[in-house]
Amino acid sequence: MFVVKTQILENYGAHCEDGRFASGNAYWKMKGGNEYIVRDLDRPQDAMAFVAAKFIENNIYFKEFPIEVITWDEWQEELNELDEDYREFLVEQAVACSPVAEAA
After folding, report:
1. What residues contact 9, with CB distance under 8 A and at least 6 apart?
2. For residue 82, what are the contacts with CB-CB under 8 A and spacing of at least 6?
3. Residue whose C-alpha is closest to residue 9's, from 38, 32, 42
4. What is the pTM of this model?
5. What's the Cα-to-Cα distance from 55 to each of 7, 25, 88, rounded to whole Å?
6. Residue 63 near residue 30 (C-beta atoms within 8 A)
7. Stretch 94-104: mean pLDDT, rounded?
8. pLDDT at 57 over 80
9. What is the chain's Cα-based Rg?
């Protein structure tokens, strides 16, 4: 089992203008990201590719892309180092997914 972490970018320039670089209206800001718990795959690169195919957005307003993939055990170690409230928040917000479940 793997955990794929993503980064989100939001284009503030697309809210009131066209948001394009060519017109000088692009204004991208880093936002948070998501954590996807991927089951039923054996390789980290497959987990990252599955998350990219299933969940990633790429448009003029919003972009989300994978930045890291770690094992379930590594994620648990990271969580254990965090404040309890933040740890609970991350676990509650994590998205569980599986290509096997998608095929069913």
Report:
1. 28, 29, 30, 31, 62, 63, 64
2. 90
3. 32
4. 0.90
5. 12, 26, 23
6. no
7. 87
8. yes
9. 16
In the block, tokens 């955990």 appear at 3
User: How far is the C-alpha of 65 from the C-alpha of 33, rounded, in Å?
Assistant: 9
CB neighbour list of residue 70: distance below 8 Å, 6 or more residues apart: 2, 3, 5, 44, 78
Q: In the structure encoding, which two tokens stand for residue 80, read together?
A: 């254990």
Q: Which residue has the tokens 């448009």?
A: 59
What is the rounded CA–CA span in Å between residue 65 and residue 6?
Answer: 5
Burial of 13 (0-12, 13-18, 19+ CB in 10 A): buried
Question: Residue 103 pLDDT > 90, yes or no?
Answer: no
Tokens linked to 57:
């957005």
What sign results for the dihedral spanned by CA atoms 43, 47, 53, 56?
negative
pLDDT tens profile 17-39: 999 999 999 999 999 999 999 99
Beta bridge partners of 35: 5
